[in-house]
Amino acid sequence: MLAIGTLSRRTGTKVQTIRYYEEIGLMNEAGRTAGGQRRYFEKDLDRLAFIRHSRQLGFSLDSIRELLDLSDNPSQSCAEADSIARRQLHQVEQRIKRLQALKKELKRMVAECDGDSVAECKVLEVLRDHAECLTEHDGIGA
Amino acid sequence: MLAIGTLSRRTGTKVQTIRYYEEIGLMNEAGRTAGGQRRYFEKDLDRLAFIRHSRQLGFSLDSIRELLDLSDNPSQSCAEADSIARRQLHQVEQRIKRLQALKKELKRMVAECDGDSVAECKVLEVLRDHAECLTEHDGIGA
DNA sequence: GATACAAGCTACAGCAGATAGAGGTTCAAG
DNA sequence: CTTGAACCTCTATCTGCTGTAGCTTGTATC
Ligand SMILES: [Zn+2]
Ligand SMILES: [Zn+2]
Ligand SMILES: [Zn+2]
Ligand SMILES: [Zn+2]
């Protein structure tokens, strides 16, 4: 039986985060000692590791929930899991595209400023007026 | 004098968001009509456009606050503004790097799955075990 | 068995950066 | 003067945690 701190150390997840995952139903409710402390099995550790690794790969908690459900039914087809992963890949690709456009603009404005007074600052000039930009960048940057 | 909806339309910012910017002190408190509705000058429109454009380029509201302060004092050196932009560029570059590593892993796991049962799904296999990954990807993916 | 103290517990607040809705009021055109 | 779109405030919600306060439990050592 593992204490929550052990799960925390072995998966690199903060203790509060593990409790949070339980609260939102991503982790099963843990068993408790007589005094009320959580105790876990190895399978709980595995589940937490799955969650953490999926998070590191950028999956949302909702997607992870689906993936865990699928993972619990080994006889099913994995088409669903694959499509979640493909969707995630697509999102990552879109984000990279957006960021590359931002990078281009930022690079240009930084390069073009001679570092004189604010009144002639190219950086601020571009920020004031999108017409100074070469690319479109709709939506809010992230 | 411009109503809030006009600012909203002309900058592509939701009305609630403009009020939110006022609440957090990013926009100045607007003047009001006798009946309590906000009314703006052209300079407020400019300020909002600056904020929105900066957001589109990925700057945080805190950075934008600094940039606006600088922009209001045209006689200063622009070194500060430039360094904020360089910091932003750096952040964007880091994010691109992380996302490219994620993309690589996602692409590989999607490609390697034959689409059979969950039990043999490569996607789920990788998620279960980071040892299957080729790259490191610490921190949580975004 | 007593004691110390690390590690656990709950409950709640807060972060960024908005966005949505309820329920009521004002403005401006016709 | 009436209509109705646009405005108002206030509160709640979202994602994914993280931090704090104040208290209790578990365990190692004496
Ligand atoms: Zn400059
Ligand atoms: Zn632009
Ligand atoms: Zn598969
Ligand atoms: Zn991995």
From TrEMBL, chains A, B:
GO terms for molecular function: DNA binding; DNA-binding transcription factor activity. This is Cu(I)-responsive transcriptional regulator. Keywords: Coiled coil, DNA-binding, Transcription, Transcription regulation. Residues 89-116 form a coiled coil. It comes from the Bacteria. The keyword Transcription applies. Residues 1-70 form the HTH merR-type domain. Transmembrane segments: none annotated. InterPro entries: DNA-bd_dom_put_sf, MerR-type_HTH_dom, MerR_fam, Tscrpt_reg_MerR_DNA-bd. It comes from Thalassovita taeanensis. The lineage of its organism: Bacteria, Pseudomonadati, Pseudomonadota, Alphaproteobacteria, Rhodobacterales.
